[in-house]
Amino acid sequence: MFVYASDLKNWMPYSLEIQIADNFDPKWANSPASWQCGALFGLQPATQKVVLKAARLSEQQLGNRDSFCLLTISTNFTQHIE
């Protein structure tokens, strides 16, 4: 989920992405913490692991105001960006 991009033509190095992934899948389970669900991708890991196992619904909420951004997954706080 992209929450910010300062350059839309060259967005990759100039964007903030919150990672939404299945941490039970070996691809993500064996990745660095900053690549797992709820992380600010490549920069900051989630504050806690909140991914539910398959067949369980996870709800995501993202709120922002000015330069403040807050992410919750399944009602658990996972990321604060300012």
**Structural domains: how many:** 1
How do the SSEs run, as a string of H and E? EEHEEE
The count of DSSP E runs of length 2 or more, i.e. the number of strands, is: 5
Oligomer: single chain
* Main beta-sheet strand count, sense and barrel state: 3 strands, antiparallel
Structural class comes to mainly beta
Any low-confidence stretches, pLDDT <50, length ≥5?
Answer: none
Roughly what is the average pLDDT, rounded to an integer? 76
- Spatial order of the strands forming the largest sheet: 3-4-5
Strand content: 25-35%
Helix content: under 10%
How far is the N terminus from the C terminus?
Answer: 17 Å
Q: Count every helix, treating DSSP H or I runs of 4 or more residues as helices.
A: 1
Instruction: Give the overall shape.
Output: globular
Q: What is the CA-atom radius of gyration, in angstroms?
A: 13 Å
In short:
The chain is mainly beta and 82 residues long.
Describe it.
There is one protein chain. The protein has 82 residues and is mainly beta. It has one domain (2-81). Helix content is 5%, strand content 30%. It contains 1 helix and 5 strands. The chain has one helix at 26-29; strands spanning 2-5, 15-17, 60-65, 68-73, 76-81. It has a 3-stranded antiparallel β-sheet with strand order 3-4-5, with no helix packed on it. It has a two-stranded antiparallel ribbon with strand order 1-2. Strand 4 and strand 5 (76-81) form a beta hairpin. The protein starts with a strand and ends with a strand. The model has no long low-confidence stretch (mean pLDDT 76).
